Amino acid sequence: MSFFDSEAFDNHEEVAYFSDAETGLKAIIAVHSTTLGPAVGGCRMWRYDDDAAALRDALRLSRGMTYKNAIADVGFGGGKAVIIADQSMKTPEMMQAFGRAVAKIGGRYYTAEDVGISPTDIGEVSKETEFVAGLEHTSGDPSPFTALGTFVGIQASVKHLTGSDSLEGKRVAVQGVGHVGYYLCEHLKKAGAELMICDINQSYLDRVVENLGATVVGIDEIYDQDVDIYAPCALGATINANTLPRLKAKIVAGCANNQLATPEMDQALTDAGILYAPDYVINAGGIINISFERDGYCADKATEKVERIYHTLSDIYQRASKENTPTGIQADRLAREILAKG
Ligand code: NAD
Q1: Cα separation of 150 and 130, whole Å?
Q2: Which one of the listed residues 80, 170, 189, 305 is annotated catalytic?
Q3: What is the pTM of this model?
Q4: What are the pLDDT digits (tens) for 167-183?
């Protein structure tokens, strides 16, 4: 199978490899689409098993950003970068070398934080290129906005199933109470929900228990909880053939990226009578916030647009019900329709 014909390639506009012997930088920048604007997507640093795995990840993530940004209506295309390295190899000089790589893409790709890359790292990148988003002094930490979008997405999901978006007395299993998960718990608690939480970090668990009140459950037990909503807010691929039959929740709605281990899980969730909030739709609050950097940042305007995720998800659910298709497929269709209109 040739590279251009592979499923992961999916008509990427541009894929570039960069290396810098002095700093040890090895990076791939993938620009899937600039149809709706310059590609915006984070940079991930990961110790990949091999270069092929890094390329696959870059392509898959960059295509995902095209779809996420299209539905979020932010005027951005989709792209992503990966740096092939262990965290221990990271230096300011390496991040600056990555900045020079981003500069060479000439504004068709803007970079930001992702797994393994902090705001400080992006600060180093910005010494070499203007094509960065999400700097601390501009729109700041995206997590509270991602959490707000996830919260209104949960409300829209409950409304779709029950006719009311009240979360009073609803039981929610939150898997991962890090940056986004904690803010999400705050919203849920305020709305009267009961929290079941898990995390591998004890201090994060303590923070939720002490400040908000929650029942802590084991890392693996989270799937077996007798809850209304399962909110994955840690890792990807937690919906898989092993976990799905264990879920008692009627709604899967959380901020984690790539929640479905395989595309088939979309149909499997529908078959199991579980409403799935497509991950890249419900977790778009952060990128929506970043998009307000362009015309002079305004938190109120960003908040208002993030809250529209409620309606976007409701539309997707209605289309899915009407056409009897899984919600993930409907989200992909909607994204492709938006892209086709340009
Ligand atoms: P984070 O690292 O702050 O939080 C993740 C939490 O999950 C951590 O507390 C970690 O200890 C915990 N965790 C790790 N492994 C776990 C396990 N096996 N079981 C339970 N908990 C575990 O990250 P974050 O910024 O809060 O992002 C959470 C998820 O949301 C990620 O998948 C991220 O890609 C996605 N996301 C985040 C944003 C954002 O604005 N931060 C935007 C879009 C999507």
Answers
A1: 30
A2: 80
A3: 0.94
A4: 999 999 999 999 999 99
